[in-house]
Design brief:
heterodimer, A: about 450 residues, alpha+beta, PmbA/TldD fold, 7-stranded mixed beta sheet, globular, B: about 475 residues, 5-stranded mixed barrel, 24 strands, about 40% strand
Chain lengths: ~450, ~475
Amino acid sequence: MQEYFHGLADHVTSLLQGDEVATMNFSGEASDFVRFNHNAVRQAGVVQAQDLSVDLIRGARHAESTTVLCGIAEEDQGRLAAMIDELRARLEHVPEDPYLLYATEVQSTERMGENQLGPVEEALQAILEGGHGQDLVGIYAQGPIYRGFANSLGQRNWFSTHSFNLDWSLYLRDDKAVKSLFAGFAWEPQRLREKMESAVQQLDLLAQPAKTIEPGKYRVYLSPTALGDVAGTVGWGGFGLKSHRSKISSLLRMIEGDARFDEAVTLRENTAEGIAPNFDGKGFLKPDEVVLVEKGEFREHLVSARSAKEYGVASNGADAYEMPNSLDMSAGDVPSAEILERLGTGAYVNNLHYLNYSDRPACRITGMTRFATFWVEDGKVVAPLNVMRFDESVYRMLGENLIGLTQEREMLISSETYMGRSCESMRLPGALIDNFSFTL
Amino acid sequence: MFEGLRERFREVTPKAEFCSLRALEERNEIVSVRQNVLEPIQTYQDRGVMITVVEGGGYGYAATADLSTPGLRRAVEQARAWARRTKGRMVIDFSKIAWPHPTGDYASPVAQSWDEVPLSEKIALCKRECERLKVDERIADHAVSLWFTRSDSLFLTNEGGEVRQSIARLYPAMRVTASQGTESQTRTYKAGAICRQGGYEILERSGFLTAAPQLAEEVLALLAAPNCPSDTMDLLLAPDQLFLQIHESVGHPLELDRILGDERNYAGTSFVRPENIGTLRYGSDLMNITFDPSVNEAFASYGHDDDGAPAERQFIIEKGILKRALGSVISQSRTGIPGVANSRADGWRRPPIDRMANLNLEPGDATLEEMIGAVDRGIYMRSNNSWSIDDSRNKFQFGCEWGQLIEKGKLTTLVKNPNYRGISANFWNNLKRVGDATTVDVMGAPNCGKGEPNQIMRVGHVTPAALFAGVEVFGGD
């Protein structure tokens, strides 16, 4: 696939005239998907797709377009030739773009993942066997993912990975379930068996009569997965330079005012230890890390090439939306083994659901508990908890009400597949929080 | 469009219980101006097919952009391989499904084609409207965009089914943010929910061309407004909030695949049980909900769904009683529950699943003034900006950009950060007035997420304003 992309990049370069420059972004995958319900297959199939975006640049004028590729060189070259003609015609109608910025220093890179994936039948059989007798629901995906950048100046960046991702739940009854993730690069049946057994054991805890609590303030433990939902919501416009300067950042009071998190909170965009490509859509390489929050105080924004030009600062390789791809929160000092004891009486929250801002300037977020969430009394799990709505400011959650973060962290590999399989991940500890507001 | 594809499909069609080809060619164009500067114009050309095969009761699909005969043959073999692999492992025997083999066509009503309007005119329009938003130094950000999509599809089956559909959509958006200190407020034109089928005429019909000055005035007023008070009161919702209330607390819980549990690992399940269909009192007598893929201009109108079922208007809830679910041919076969033509995919790369299309609240008999006049203490909310609901679609919370208190039958104090929360069934049973046709607006959303693998769907909601009693209302920090 890399060779195919480079061939098309060379072809586009050969079509350029005069002082025209082209930047190109390639995205592709060949994925098997199997969807399960009640430990049977609901849908199964394969998706093969590749897209190529071209930005045709002449001076400060430019025009972008994306086309799907069919994989037949002659036909794709024809599509790209037609695209270049159309973009060239469009250049006549667009003004100079004051915020255009692209890499002009050639920095080629290559990161090729080895294909260790087995036949998809092997995984299918193992999942159905592992879920035998259980109400298993979820999705399995496997196959290669490709990302590439090229420009007519000769820069070539390539990223490929061959991965699998099983995202599934075992249901006991109604909404009582245990959710699990199993992702990697080589199928390990023993690891699946271990994870399945662990989920089945948690189902036993869910079998007890569920408890409903009244709205109010409670001590809670948010697992790394639950904390990841909170961090992901903050990442939606919180860290970007453009959202800050546009005054819509949810961290505005932290960046410009006196709000802050507890000093135990340090957040980084950790590209070096994530699983995402280390180049952006304009040809800039991402630094190994960008420190977003250090010891509770805001440090650096995520800055895309466009924002860099608009606001006169250096880009740090952020994508256009300036959201983290590889968010990393530093570990704390609470041993995970002591969480129940330190929680004492309160809610042990494994998963959250459907988070959104209820007051963006205050960084206040609402959402629901979901899946295996338990009520704990005197350090012991006593009952599954019926779902509760929370509505709480992140400044309080990770600030004055933060009791501590766990020493152990989890690597959460995204199973999202909107517009294609994701290459995002997070590494987070769990968080013990006091006076957490449940509202409904 | 799709020249020779039917013939090539006939060449490669296997001997199977069912086989279909769903081809889609889609062109997207986005023109956007932010802070009076033209953003890079985005265009996206997509074209591909999904082959579906049912063989021996198993089911498989294969999606490819290679529309050549060898490409289609390869996709058929891949789909067959999955059908064989899943034989005896499916949730039901797919050979027992009565697959449609329809013929027909559909085209969006278009008065003025997007392509007839020169690019320079579209850019000039966005710039002009964007400039009109910058009325004060406190305006920190302002943007106007036009997103046009044209989708042409061809659906073929192994028994001669053939449906051609051509859909044009326009999604204009306008946003302005004002800021003072660390406080900021944003107004959007009708919550960014002017999503309609048609052409350039939508801009005028939707009021988009005259919206900017009022929007800028409103965002500055919000900046100076007090926070919404916390209380239980009557709640009057404008269409640009009510459309999402319908979407989240009526549409999703009634999708039959959720009721069947397909979505439990991702989007969630439903508080509705199969046995509730036909008997459940979902709302007050004033609640009439229709599935209507035939509404002029509505975002999700079509002739046939993505499994070929003919789309017809159906009452889903009539006088508050749940009559049928939003279930496609497959879900109907799995349950025996009556459904609708709502098997939909967001493109050729994803298989269809149960989706609401146009799900509408039918108008009642009250003018907006009559509804305001009927309130002793309440609040009028406009323009959604926050949404959240539990995985069973019960406990919801919504936020709006604009709130105005209603006291003794009159609109009074403007308040910022208005939010409300409740439980779906209780909420709809407290529906006490429904706006008449003068309050109706054609709304929609381009980005409803659901499914594994994930899909982003376009949905339409045509709705009047409506009044609800006894709702928990609150504001920001």
